[in-house]
Design a protein that fits this description.
The protein is an alpha/beta fold. Strands 3-2-1-4-5-7-6 form a seven-stranded mixed β-sheet, with helices on both faces. It is about 30% helix and about 25% strand. The structure holds S-adenosylmethionine.
Length: about 190
């Protein structure tokens, strides 16, 4: 992809380009979305098996891996998975696996995970309903899906739209965190 094409993708709707992955790792993000806060909202237990959908370069991944038993990094771009994996290894973490694929058709069996999360991913997937359905499918009954969205992202999905879409799946709304312009909404698989 040319630099101009990549830039158009950062500024516009659609897949976030791996060429600009490092921007997602800027410490400035910590002012609004510190990894510790996002992971706390997931309410993880030490033995939990966790799926990070659209992990990107792994800004949130080390904090999640530290708080759970096993983390699966999932993204449709191998370049993103490479960077996320390096970040975990650099911190001496080994309780993780990586898996490439499409969030609309997750390559995991039903009820595989205790928790799943996605941060600024859902609107990028192309079919948010399918992504929510798939996330629900791979969660164990009682498992938690945590979706974080940030206004300003060209693919932002409002809290109201998210709840409306989730209501069409087997996910039950649990609770909200944060203001409407950078919120997390948690759901429980029935
Ligand atoms: C804006 S980035 C956010 C990355 C990370 N969650 C963060 O907040 O730093 C969105 C990520 O979702 C991934 N993604 C987009 N559509 C996807 C899909 N259909 N299946 C899997 N990953 C997808 C992209 O490759 C990208 O890494």
């Amino acid at each position: 992809m040319s630099k101009d094409d990549a830039w158009a993708r950062v500024a516009g709707k659609g897949l976030y380009p791996v060429e600009y992955a490092r921007w997602l790792l800027t410490p400035w993000r910590g002012l609004i979305l510190p990894p510790s806060r996002i992971v706390k909202r997931l309410g993880l237990k030490p033995d939990d098996r966790v799926l990070e959908i659209g992990c990107g370069p792994g800004y949130f991944s080390p904090a999640a891996a530290l708080a759970c038993g096993h983390l699966t990094l999932f993204d449709c771009q191998d370049g993103m998975l490479d960077i996320a994996q390096e970040r975990l290894k650099a911190r001496g973490l080994s309780n993780f696996a990586r898996a490439p694929g499409d969030a609309k058709a997750l390559p995991f069996t039903d009820s595989s995970f205790d928790a799943a999360f996605m941060v600024t991913v859902l609107g990028e997937v192309g079919d948010a309903d399918a992504a929510l359905r798939e996330a629900a499918r791979v969660l164990k009954p009682g498992g938690r899906l945590s979706v974080t969205e940030q206004m300003g992202d060209p693919d932002f999905i409002s809290r109201e739209e998210l709840k409306m879409r989730a209501a069409k799946t087997t996910l039950a709304f649990e609770r909200n965190f944060g203001p409407r312009f950078f919120y997390t909404a948690n759901f429980l698989q029935r």
